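Input/output pair, single chain:
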Amino acid sequence: MKPSGLDDGAFTGLEVAMVFIAFIVVASIFAYAALSAGFFTTQKTEQTVYSAVQQVGTVIQIVEPVMVQAGSSGDSVRYITITVKGSSNVDIDVERIVVTVSTAEAMQTYKGATFWHPVSKDRQPTAFWSMRIPLYRADEPAATGDLIISQNQRFFIEIKSTEAISCMVERRVPAGMRPGSWYEV
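Output:
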C-alpha cells in the first residue's frame, strides 16, 4: 500500500541546491566587490608612488667634496666651492637657486647665475654646476658684510630652489690652515 502523504524528499534536495547556488552567487558578488576595491587601492597607491618619485626626482644634490680656501692670514675661510647636480642628470636652472652659508653667529645668502659655472663635457647638457662662494665683501661687493668662518668652526650650506627639494650640508673648517691653500671638508 501507498502511504497517504506526499514524498517531500526530492523537493528538499532541490531546495538545498537552490540555496547553495544562491550562496555561490552572493559570494561571487562579494568577491567582485573585494577585487574592485583592491584594484582601486592599488591604482591609488600607484598614483601616490609616481607622485613621490616625481617630487624626489627634482632633488639638487651637493657632489663631494666641498672645498674651502684659507684667507690671506690662514685664520679663516675666504672661499667655499661646491658642485651640485640635479637628479637623473637633469639640467638645473641656477637662476632660481638660493644658497645660504651660515654659522652659529652669522648668515649670508647668495642668488643669481653669476656665481655658477657649468661643469660639462663637449656639447652635452649641463648636469653639474660649480659655485665659488665669496665670504668677504672685498671679493663680492653685493654682500651685506663679511662672513667670518674661523679654523675648526662648523658651518652650514643650504641650497634652495623653487623647482626642487632643498639640500643642506654641515662641515667643519680644518685647523692649522696655511694662507691661500685649498682644503677638502
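Residues 60 and 86 are 5 Å apart (CA to CA). The helical segments are 9-56.
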